[in-house]
Amino acid sequence: MATKRPHPSAAAPSADDDDPVDPSDELMFLALGGGNEVGRSCHIIQYKGKTVMLDAGIHPAFDGLAALPFYDEFDLGTVDVLLITHFHMDHAASLPYVLAKTPFKGRTYMTHPTKAIYKWLMQDSVRVSNTHRAPASSTSTSANDGGAIAQLYTEADVLQTLPQIQTISFNTTHTHAGIRITPYPAGHVLGACMYLIEIAGLSILFTGDYSRENDRHLIPATIPRGLKVDCLITESTFGISTHIPRAEREIALMKSITGILGRGGRVLLPVFAIGMAQELLLILEDYWTRHPEYQRFPIYFASALARKCMVVYQTYIDSMNDNIRSKLHSGATTGPWDFEHIRSLKSLDRFDDVGGCIMLASPGMLQNGVSRALLERWAPDPKNGVVITGYSVEGTMAKEIMKEPDSIPSVMGQRNNPSLAPGRKIGEEKTMIPRRCTVQEFSFAAHVDGSENRAFIEEVNAPVVVLVHGERGNMMRMRSRLLGLGKFKVYSPANCEEVRIPFRRDKVAKVVGSLASTYTPTGETIGGDVKRPRAEGDPQTISGILVQSDHKLSL
Ligand SMILES: [Zn+2]
């Protein structure tokens, strides 16, 4: 079990921290994952004997059990409610493990679109992960941003535990075990939500991953005006850094892509199969429609999973923004998710690699699978280019390639890379491939940047802020900036460091019977009835009342 000690990273602008607080008034927060890191999001909150678990992800840089949150640090059998914010692997991919292999017996919630995609995604991930054995050319390797999942659970586990997941809609409140939960749209990806959790009058808002940008298909994160929040748990992926404006980013992205095509190269866009990939497809389709001169270059999307999930995108058009909805209702013959210039690729075996093209391929982190196979094939040619558009997790090839190394290790083997042989350095443990292709990054990761996050934190105006889902440096910079505002108590705990956050609540105790009639207190009573100085003849003074409730004593 996690140790019970105050967290050193807690910091508060107020001076009254030394006042005693009834331990039953403390909110316990424990990150089992996602504390000072991006990946394997999973947090526990406890208040007044109720336990809520937030997300159940895996870490994309690790394999098997090492990719899990620190589940052995907490008794999952005590969790009342588990809330999944969205379908991304680092937020949902250890859920089958939790439901099938741990003592967890609480209730699990996610939104309708999240569950629809989760079902396809987890099945695909397990198949892949029977994994690294799958041929690299198969585009069913699309989803595997999460290491070897087959070591954690089977496809049967995924399917058998599906009925345990309850679906909920945005802006509707559910109550279980005295815990009220309300999901609000979070932007980010289809179905992503923030959760408002209310326990015994205390309100906690968990953002999950969120974005407030007007993009081409999602509703930006929104919460009701004037929502009272006592504790905000927010992501801090981008720390205090600022995104360049969306329109400029799109122009820069298209300039980079057309530049690579113009010099006779191939463009590799490593993407997670679902989410940001669909946003990129909308950008590319729009540009190709407006620029016929580029239409001779094919755009491929190598993801069997994304094909399956398109049905979900078409089903939940009403959960998207006006840009998409208006296309559906405009009477056009093609729907908003029908693409004229994008070709779906079932397998690399069917890919005629003969010249300039754009390839969106998974996984986004370039750890293995189709995107890695193409990287290893295309990296030696300086005409080719890799364009990174997502957030790259520490320890993955996507992060590594941005440092523009001279060579990269081959993990896909020569079988899939006939062009690999010339770059092989004999005698090295791993075969190395020269990297001469260009590497550029344009972030379309649907997360708030530093100033959007700060604006939201100020808007919510909760007295307590807990930062999660950020690399340590980014998180610390965000924390300093928030503390500089002098308005918030800010926590940024590492994994397994339990924090106890005091919430002072006024308590009222009524004195009745002989005690009330015999003695008149000299102090101000909570009810505000009597206040007078102590007189000579007063028999006794009451300076406090000892109340026993729930086996606990409060003065
Ligand atoms: Zn996410």
Describe this structure in words.
With 555 residues, the chain is of the alpha/beta class. It folds into three domains: 16-111 and 168-242 and 446-502, Ribonuclease Z/Hydroxyacylglutathione hydrolase-like (Metallo-beta-lactamase, Chain A, 4-Layer Sandwich); 246-441, 3-Layer(aba) Sandwich (Rossmann fold), CATH 3.40.50.10890; 508-555, no CATH class. Helices cover 24% and strands 19% of the residues. The protein has 13 helices and 24 strands. The protein has helices at residues 89-92, 95-101, 112-129, 155-161, 246-262, 276-290, 304-315, 322-329, 369-378, 397-401, 450-460, 472-484, 514-518, and strands spanning 26-33, 42-47, 50-54, 81-83, 107-111, 165-168, 174-176, 179-185, 193-199, 202-206, 231-235, 267-270, 299-302, 342-344, 358-361, 385-388, 407-409, 432-434, 438-441, 464-468, 489-491, 499-502, 547-549, 552-554. The protein has a seven-stranded mixed β-sheet. The protein has a seven-stranded mixed β-sheet with strand order 7-8-9-10-11-20-21, covered by helices on one side. A six-stranded parallel β-sheet has the order 14-13-15-12-16-19, sandwiched between helices. Strand 9 and strand 10 form a beta hairpin. The two termini are 30 Å apart. The structure holds zinc ion. Residues 86, 88, 91, 188, 209 line the site of zinc ion.
